[in-house]
Design goal:
By secondary structure, this protein is mostly helical. It has one domain. The chain has helices at residues 11-21, 30-55, 92-112, 124-142, 163-172, 177-197, 201-224, 228-244, 250-254, 257-283, 292-303, 310-318, 321-347, 360-363, 366-374; strands spanning 63-67, 73-77, 86-90, 147-150, 158-162.
Length: 375
């Protein structure tokens, strides 16, 4: 019997819970909302040629090899606007619903690979409990995500721009709306370019994540059936760690050494993706985003939790957002260090094949990556 994630979680109910629990976005007039949606769509469109220019990357298939009159191979770039996927401007509830579908798509292969005795057989009550847990988490995250490039949704890859969060951020930080919306889209369209230039990347990441999830399934399923006191103890330890400032999650408490090493390798790839996008979004310069320095300074202060209440700081740690921040900064440092050694074209060798991705050790030692890849 084939098991799917729907046997564990009532996904439609998870989306409904997220919709109901998510905090409403900022109040705005119809005119302001129309300007916001139109501005984000325009920014997503305008970002593409700038991303092409600063990254020096091209989608796979846009670069072809042909012989010249002497018989030598030359490279020819097919001109034209690259197709990086669809763009959707969404509210928080729609973002949460889209993520339930992506989560289901990533979990299904793991469950299908389980031996029949290990496959869970959950009751309706357990499926609803899973829906409540995931819906609540997505509701919390839905108010914090500005944009997300999703290569795993049904159909084509899609860029989701969460309109109320963009509006809330630009108001809170007192930023120029046109500049900020373009700046956000530069980051997200860089992600779209990464997956378009390296068409193997989505499957590579999904495969590694599935392997990791499969390896810890027996542990996680055992925890799901553990007595209440064990669950409470796990949550308590995680909460205590978060308050103390340790970057841990419940997963850290249950995986073994091998899984932790694999998690570190996956985290290194994610650091590359986020750090690369962060560097490129600023590289367009002030001619494209005149207030880019102001945006970066205020956004970094926001990332650091400046002025945030203590409860919000703890929540960020529980959601893993501080770990995400570390990914941005570690990855950006790697990208800048590699460019200092071999330039931007040398950096782009990272997108050529899975074996060119940096390891966990190399993210902290860019010269080691340069030696391994460039000799």
């Amino acid at each position: 019997m084939t098991t799917s994630s729907a046997d564990l979680v009532d996904w439609p109910t998870a989306a409904q819970i997220a919709r109901r629990v998510a905090r409403p976005g900022p109040v705005a007039s119809r005119t302001e909302l129309d300007d916001l949606v139109g501005g984000l769509r325009a920014a997503a469109d305008d970002a593409v040629p700038h991303v092409q220019r600063v990254t020096r990357m091209r989608p796979a298939g846009s670069v072809v090899r042909q012989r010249d009159a002497t018989g030598r191979f030359t490279r020819r770039v097919r001109v034209g606007r690259p197709d990086l996927g669809d763009v959707r401007v969404v509210d928080r509830a729609t973002w949460a619903h889209a993520n339930t579908r992506s989560m289901s798509a990533l979990v299904d292969p793991v469950l299908a690979g389980l031996d029949p005795p290990a496959r869970p057989a959950e009751s309706a009550a357990a499926r609803l409990a899973g829906a409540a847990e995931i819906g609540g988490l997505l509701a919390l995250l839905s108010g914090k995500v500005l944009g997300q490039f999703d290569p795993y949704g049904p159909g084509r890859p899609v860029l989701l721009l969460v309109a109320p969060n963009v509006l809330a951020a630009e108001r809170a930080l007192r930023l120029d709306p046109r500049d900020f919306r373009l700046w956000v889209c530069l980051h997200e369209q860089t992600h779209a370019m990464q997956f378009a230039a390296a068409p193997w990347l989505a499957d590579h990441l999904a495969g590694r994540l599935s392997a990791l999830l499969g390896a810890v399934t027996s542990t996680s399923l055992g925890m799901a059936r553990a007595p209440l006191r064990e669950k409470v103890a796990l949550v308590g330890r995680t909460l205590l760690d978060a308050v103390r400032g340790d970057l841990t999650t419940p997963l850290d408490q249950v995986v073994g050494p091998e899984q932790k090493r694999e998690l570190a390798e996956i985290t290194a790839v994610m650091a590359l993706l986020e750090g690369h996008a962060d560097v490129m979004m600023d590289a367009v310069g002030r001619r494209v985003v005149p207030s880019v320095r102001t945006i970066r300074a205020r956004f970094e202060a926001r990332r650091d939790g400046e002025g945030a209440p203590r409860a919000d700081v703890v929540l960020r740690r529980l959601l893993g957002m501080d770990a995400k921040l570390a990914q941005y900064r570690d990855g950006a440092a790697f990208v800048r260090a590699v460019e200092g050694e071999v330039g931007r074209d040398g950096l782009n060798a990272v997108w050529a094949a899975p074996e060119n991705l940096p390891t966990a050790r190399e993210i902290a030692d860019a010269r080691a990556w340069v030696r391994r890849v460039h000799g």
